Amino acid sequence: MREIPRLIFNNEIVARRADLRKVNQSTPVLKNKGALNIIFFDGMPLVNKTNSQTRLTYLFHDHWLLTHVDLTVFIGLYKGKSIFAHNIFKDRKDSSHEDTLGYFNKRIQNDLMLNMSYFLNLRNALTDISDEESALAGTGKALIHWNLNNKYCGKCGLALSIKNYGWERHCNSCNQHHFPRIDPVIIILIISGNKTLIGRSPHFPEKLYSCLAGFVEPGETIEMAAKREVQEEVGLKIYDIEYVANQPWPFPSSLMFGLKGNTNHTLLDIDKNELEDAVWLTREELKNLLKGNCNNMLPARPGTIARLLLESWVRNEI
Ligand SMILES: [Zn+2]
Question: Burial level of 212, CB count in 10 A (0-12/13-18/19+)?
């Protein structure tokens, strides 16, 4: 049986139900006892680890943590229940990120109902969270980030009001409507005969190598962006670009378009501002890397679209 690589953030577990976003914002939804509440601090969801499984921590509507919330967004319906994502804010302006996190962690550890809970850095621990709940965490994280970073009107500069439970902001001064922004990014498996190219950016975790990626610019198709990025980063001309798969990527608000493309050349001209290193690997070498048999390199992590591209190519599926 064909094994399909998992892609985190990619499932349809949430019924988005735009119609339910329009309910009166003053409705005391937190008093809806059937609702599920998940909470974030600085983009990190509160999770708990029991029996080696990491799950989101769901709070009752009257939990003390919900009194420290400055933003609530409605994600949708999950297993028939309303699910809300909340952002915890710093009570004191002069307290540092670490102080505030320490304060909440201490109170959480003293709460018998929460003492297995902690704030998870999703980016560092991508595979800790289950596939199903990754969609809840990813959507909540992205939507909270957009709201916290779009408090003022980009047109006239005045404060925006929140609408549709976090899915829209409106300027009452100039009547401009603002909607959550998504940034398209291409990520591409570059093939030359029996070899593929992987590289590492300076901001990657140590030893990690992945497919080349870059933002799509205004006026570009995803194929044009792929050609430009590859030319800029490693000096290669690519052709026969094909779409493979896509993945929402809430760091903070990307949509990754996974592509593959061919090149007739292998000589690299690496832009050292963009890439620390880039290397060609044969299918056998990549297979070894994916098995964890390389001391000095780590492959793109399971659950990412880069990993899907690499594994699919090794298995001759793309
Ligand atoms: Zn305005």
Answer: buried
Give the range of the structural domain holding residue 139, as residue numbers without chain letter: 14-149
Does 220 map to a domain? yes
Q: For residue 147, report the distance from its CA to the centre of ligand 1, in Å.
A: 15
Q: Which of 155, 198, 199 is nearest to 177 (CA)?
A: 155
**How does pLDDT run across 165-209, given as a tens digit for each residue?**
999 999 999 999 999 999 999 999 999 999 999 999 999 999 999
Residue 23: inside a domain? yes
What is the 167 CA–ligand 1 centroid distance (Å)? 17
CA distance 48 to 35: 19
Locus of tokens 């922004």 = 181
Distance (Å) from CA 174 to ligand 1 centroid: 4
What is the rounded average pLDDT of the residues 108-114? 91
Separation of CA 155 and ligand 1 centre (Å): 5
Same domain assignment for residues 25 and 50 = yes
State the DSSP H helix or E strand holding residue 44, giving kind and residue range, or none if neither: strand 44-50
Residue 26 CB partners (closer than 8 Å, separation 6+):
none
Q: Are residues 304 and 274 in the same domain?
A: yes
The model carries a pTM of: 0.92
pLDDT tens for each residue of 251-296: 999 999 999 999 999 999 999 999 999 999 999 999 999 999 988 9
Backbone CA torsion sign across 149, 152, 155, 157: negative
* Per-residue pLDDT tens over the stretch 219-234: 999 999 999 999 999 9
CA of 113 to the centre of ligand 1 (A): 44
Give domain status of residue 4, yes or no.
no
Q: What is the DSSP string of 73-118?
A: EEEEEETTEEEEEEEE--SSTTS-HHHHHHHHHHHHHT-TTTTTEE
User: What pLDDT is attached to residue 1?
Assistant: 41
> Same domain, yes or no, for 216 and 109?
no
With beta carbons less than 8 A apart as the criterion, state whether 214 and 225 touch.
yes
